[in-house]
Amino acid sequence: MRRYWALGATAVAVVAAVAAVAGWYFFLKPPLADRLVLKSTTFTALKDWDANDPRGALTAFVASCARFERGRLDRSLGAGGIAGTVADWKPVCDGARALGAADAVAVRRFFAEAFVPVTAANNRDRDGLFTGYYEPELRGAERPNAKFAVPLYKRPDDLVTVDLGQFRESLKGQRTAGKVVNGVLRPYASRAEIEAGALQGKNLELLWVEDPIAAFFLHVQGSGRVVLDDGSVRRVGFAAQNGHPYVAIGRELIARGVLSREEVSLQTIAAWLRANPGEAAALMNKNPSYVFFRPLPGPGAEGSQGAVLTAEHSLAVDTVYIPLGVPIWLDTTLPGDRPGTTGPAYRRLVIAQDTGGAIKGPVRGDVFFGAGARAEDLAGRMKSQGRYYLLLPRAVVERGDPWPKDPS
Prior knowledge:
The chain is of the alpha+beta class. The protein is built from eleven helices and 17 strands. It has two domains: about 35-130 and about 305-370 and about 380-400, Barwin-like endoglucanases (Beta Barrel); about 135-295, CATH 2.40.240.50. The strands form three sheets. It has a six-stranded mixed β-barrel. The chain has a six-stranded mixed β-sheet with strand order 5-9-4-10-11-12. Strands 6-7-8 form a three-stranded antiparallel β-sheet, with no helix packed on it. Strand 10 (about 225) and strand 11 form a beta hairpin. It is globular, with a radius of gyration of 25 Å. The relative contact order is 0.19.
């Protein structure tokens, strides 16, 4: 009996040791890498689908069709081919254009007949972060003076933008930028270096604005309106970026204990910058990313796809995972009246038409709210949890591959 008891004790000890190691592995193992997982569903799974007016999304979708239809029929929409090719989308684009000024019921019926909703998840997590952006308005001039002394720069001729996906399949959707020095691509000047004068004397000034803090947030938004003294308006939009990573300065204020995570918004950050003019420039320079602008001749702000954005029906996404031009059913909430609170449900059909330096991940979006006081208020405060569903042509869903699947 004692012999068998000894063997049992040893076995128990081994099991305990293995369990301990497994426990430590559980706590120490790295988190799962971001991975888009798709699963088809039905329109009955989309809350409030039958109550939504998708006509604004139809306008945005037709604008996107005009962009990607320029490519060859066999060209993939991107993001690993999950949305098929231009040939898969041409029939639905033709159908969308044929609707003209149809009512909301007819437009809803079109989307329900032409598309299949597909749940999107990051591995097994369907929830993600949704923020907002808008088209700000600044005061400015075509020439500098004592009042208007902050330049908005055009894209420098020596800035080289690199699509990394052309060099390595695993880097598809990722870009960088720099400057070629002696045949080697080097980092371009950072925000701090540009603010210190790195681009002075190169005749790159597009316009001059009054407020450096407003100019900083124009860089964050990517496009805006500059109102001149005679009342005329110059629209400017994203032309290029200096290749440095985007750093959210709100995180620095959280780290300093100035603001809580719940309190951080465009409004509270701007208020701190204005209340601390001696520290404002240094804080803004914590974000090394710098945006260059171009004149926008069209009727509104443009997204990365080149289409004019539609207020509350255009969404910025991470194109590593989500192709531009894809309709998306968004299910999230607006911000509440007080920091950290949740407002009313915000469910609508939007179109993936833009990107952003902070928009990273399989379930991540930035809603374009348009221009004006309401747009600024909502965009500045929105940081809501939510989920979305991709709407893909039936032919793509029936074919299925190369959809990322849940390994379980």
